[in-house]
Amino acid sequence: MTQTLPSSSSSSSSSSPPIVPPIGETLTLIPGLPNDVASLIFSFISYSHHARLKCTCRSWRLFLSSKALISLRQSHRNLSHLLCIFPQDPAVTSPYLFDPKTLAWCPLPPMPCNPHRYGLCNFASVALGPTLYVLGGSVFDTRSFPLDRPSPSSAAFRFDFHTWSWDRLAPMLAPRGSFACAAEPNSAQILVAGGGSRHALFAAAGSRISSAERYDIEKDEWVSVDGLPSFRAGCVGFFVRDGEESEFWVMGGYGESRTILGVFPVDEYYRDAVAMELKNRKWREIGDMWNSGERVRLGKIVVVEDEDRGRPGVYMLDGNDILRYDMASNRWREESRVPREAPLNSSFGFVVLDGELHVITLKRAVESVDTRRSRQHSKKTGILYIQIYNPKRKTWRSLITKSPFNSSLDFNTAVMCDIRL
């Protein structure tokens, strides 16, 4: 059965973060054991159980809220691979953490809201260590005219899992939504490129930009870098490392638009990619990844880090097919097919957790003992059916969990990212 976990002691971004002193000689984690041994035992406990254990005693609460625990879990490679789902505007609807190993859900506090802005979507979310970043997006502003025209956002927020609170960061130099975004490996840097103002309520509209910038986490500062060769929005970004060389890739998206019969706007989708060499910060163009007529646009993209000697594995979900990108030939190759297709008029969520591809869809009814017992609840929120593909073993498995959201989850607009805690 799926567990719904309580959050930490602070559940509001406006509350003061708890002061966490170090564990001293006077505080014992487990009676009869040295604290270093007890600390090692705690480091093997899944993160999804921490919130309940903090209520046991003061020493457990202090240690489980300390930065030392994350460092210890990193050194022993005991990090939990969790999925964070933003169903809608995070200032209105709380995002949730999901642990696929324990089927446990944990709500996060809503992001600080702006009374003049609403309907945030097409933002980027990226995790670095025990922090989660929410950048940009497209939003409606009551101070703009006309009121029904969305505008891009430059806002940046960070959620700290130690303090269990949100912090407002320096805004981006250029407001943008639907853009490429990735955290630079082994560096406290985030790169963003492209984007525009398109909102999820409008199928084909909005501006496009080509600018790119880099965020320095330690300085809380955005610095402009050379922009893309052309306007590009709706694209994805990731890093490729080849030995000591690293590149920031921007793939797919749309640029120019045309109209049908002079009335209906239609996007012109890119079939290529561009890459920035991190040493000289210069862009190079990569040819078309498919021939004309093979497909119209890029599907949902996920990246498996360090899959092949530092090079990532890039996978695309195209309908019910999973394709893998071959960098040597600049072509997409068939990898596998989703065993169980999504129902009519529904969509898949596509994300990587612990080196495995997770294909998520909302199922109204699944024939199993647990779901028959919870059918009354599933009529309200549905249940999530997750199909998991292991690229190394070429095998599929699946799991089922209740959805914690009060409304149906739309994977076309929901934002998802993985985080390791």
From TrEMBL:
Pfam families, alphabetized: F-box-like, Kelch_1
Domain of life of the organism in this record?
Eukaryota
**Stored Gene3D superfamilies:** Kelch-type beta propeller
Q: Where is the F-box domain?
A: 33-73
Record's SMART domains? FBOX (SM00256), Kelch (SM00612)
Show the PANTHER family listed in the entry.
Answer: F-BOX/KELCH-REPEAT PROTEIN OR23, F-BOX_KELCH-REPEAT PROTEIN OR23
Its recorded name reads: F-box/kelch-repeat protein
